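Supplementary Methods, section 5.1.

A reviewer requested that the exact input to the structure prediction be made available. We therefore reproduce it here, unchanged from the version used in the analyses.
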Amino acid sequence: MSNQSSTPSTAESSGDAHPPTDDHTLAEAAEAIIFAADEPVTAERIAEIVSEVTGQPEVSDEEVQTAIETINEEYEASGRALEIHEWGEGYRMATRSTLSPFVKTLFVGEQEKSLSRSLMETLAVIAYRQPVTRPEVDFIRGVNSDYAIGKLLEMELVDVEGRADSLGRPLLYGTTSQFLEQFGLKSLDDLPTLREVEELLDDPAFDEERAKLLRLDKEEEVSVDDILEEVEEEEKKEEAESSSPEEE
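The structure derived from this sequence is encoded token-by-token as follows.
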């Protein structure tokens, strides 16, 4: 690759505010690193790379953030299609949200194939209930989720986080940093509301009852495993009552 910057206007606007070398600004270095990376890059990692290349003391996270703000201001001022976002605890270059229809049209076939409605529904359950077991996912969805969970594991959108303390010690599933990156989220706190999820799925089967199950407050230690046990106990009780002789 050439040592010359592909965005000279950024260098001009940055001046010598944060110069890691005599030839390049911190903004230029950060832009090049983020552009070349296949995954989000943290401010700390950017600082480490700049220090390693220049031999100068590491800049602070705040200085990296300021440099990236400078880049974004230059992008906006020049009407560029790109922005740098903080996703999955790191920085990544992406197109502006207003241009999403063009990008979606480019990848619509691949997206529909890779994330079907069943995968999206399973992913939503795991995202809002994590860590969650497969029986919990099955109960909320009302169908077997083995295939969906397997595909999500293969796509690295979910991962195994351990085992539950309930009977049989089933595996616990949660979302990954790849999930945050794929959906443009900085953290799980940025997840959309459940109403937005229902609209996204556009599935009548994803009804109010399932939404309520997703809203179960973890702080109250309410789990779907407990609900499943209660349902089984009720079914056994009803079966016993129905099989007992009626009183005359």
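DSSP finds twelve helices and five strands in the chain. These observations are discussed further in the main text.
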